[in-house]
User: Fold DUF4198 domain-containing protein from Roseateles amylovorans.
Amino acid sequence: MTTNFRIVSRLAPLALAIAAALPLSAQAHMTWLLPNKAAFDGKEPVASFDAAVSEDLFNFERALKLDTLRITAPDGKAVDAENRSSGRHRESFDVKLTQDGTYRISNVSQALMGSYKQGSETKRFRSTPATLVKDVPADAEITAMTLMTNRQQTFVSKEEPGKVAFAPEGNGLELLPLGPVTDLSHGDKTTFRLLLDGKPAADIPVKLLREGNRYRYKLGEIEVRTDAKGEFTVAWTEAGRYFIGANAGPARGPNAPTGTREAPVQRASVSATFEVLPK
Assistant:
């Protein structure tokens, strides 16, 4: 199978991938990475992170598997997570912040689902790019296939945020901040660029949700849309922790494309979390 996506060989459970690929307003659960705080100081501070799936934002309901964790230091090099642990409601890890500046933390997963015909029998399958050859017989005709790429992101910094200029990771949807995002206060504005396979994703709706939706009758969800450069600006009007999410791919429905083994339908989602302090 050949695609435009760089294949990630290990992924979170398929059910989580499907949930993350749905529009925020339609899905029951959200997936997210959350640091204990965004800005650190000191000689070698340690940032702690939790990963979970929840209907109520930032309330731990089910652990999000982190088999494809990527941590990028301010100098652009990869950093290993420490003290990883897995529980029923969350997965957790630490990152030692040895460099001044901003770190990017990402979790990326890919999943395949569809149907195939073998003889007169049609079967549905759920697989991964790494296990497709085992899950679907070689002589079977794949009649429908979708490749879903999901990414969760967050950012932390040590001392001053420094210049924020991360290189695109290049597969699926990702969010690149065009300025500091770890020392935010209410009243600030931040511009982001949304990328799809490393290129600007134009005219994509982006959802913004503040924590605490469990304790109010209305979600308070705000929608903005990317411009021709894939950029959008968020005005942080209240202190708190925030979730930003976006999805890309062809619309579902009776006339939706079905995809093939060589050219699957491609869908992608991204979520990112941020902390905003009082002025």
Summary: The chain has one domain: 14-277. Residues 1-27 have pLDDT under 50 and may be disordered.
